[in-house]
């Protein structure tokens, strides 16, 4: 099995839409609007300041992805890279796909001078939490709050 990581391209759009929809359903039982989701993913490709996607391939077949977005920290005078929209196909899970994606993000973030990596995880997803801890990530002492604005379609991301 040969695992490789590459930058996503617009040609990956259909898989990214499908995987984001599957992840939302699996983690939150949320049905996302496919048209809104496609526009949201395209928005990353159209404006790279928003972030980028990485794709994991096993023997040349795409088996997972994640999105990286940026958050400026005035306290540290640098960017935190947020790992979001993580998805690994069911048949590839527990095979090191996320670890490979994470290593690629960590390497790119260090090379870019980022000050750290962050992600959020469902409170009940013990398996993911254990994986993140095994990678050296620590649970933060912050709670997350949100307020959807008029432009939002009523569905959180």
How would you portray this structure in words?
There is one protein chain. The chain is α+β, with helices and mostly antiparallel strands. The chain has one domain: Aminopeptidase, CATH 3.40.630.30. It contains four helices and five strands. Strand 3 and strand 4 form a beta hairpin. Helix 1 (13-28) crosses helix 2 (34-46). The longest helix is centred in the first third of the chain and has 16 residues, at 13-28. The chain is globular and about 40 Å long. The termini are far apart.
How would you summarize the topology of this molecule?
Elements: E1 3-7, H1 13-28, H2 34-46, E2 52-58, E3 61-73, E4 78-88, H3 97-112, E5 116-119, H4 126-134
Parallel strand pairs: 4-5
Antiparallel strand pairs: 1-2, 2-3, 3-4
Helix pairs in contact: 1-2
Top keywords for this entry?
5-stranded mixed sheet; alpha+beta; Aminopeptidase; globular
Categorize the overall geometry. Answer: globular
Spatial strand order of the main sheet = 1-2-3-4-5
The proportion of strand residues reads 25-35%
Following the backbone from N to C, one meets helices and strands in this order, namely EHHEEEHEH
Low-confidence spans: none
Distance between the termini: 33 Å
User: How would you characterize the largest beta sheet?
Assistant: 5 strands, mixed
> Which architecture would the CATH scheme give at its second level?
3-Layer(aba) Sandwich
If helices are DSSP runs of H or I spanning 4 or more residues, what is the number of helices? 4
Top CATH class: Alpha Beta
Tell me the CATH superfamily: Gcn5-related N-acetyltransferase (GNAT)
Q: What's the gyration radius in Å?
A: 16 Å
- Give me the count of strands: 5
What would the average pLDDT be, to the nearest integer?
A: 92
Query: What's the quaternary structure here?
Result: single chain
CATH topology name:
Aminopeptidase
Task: Classify the helix fraction into a percent range.
Answer: 25-40%
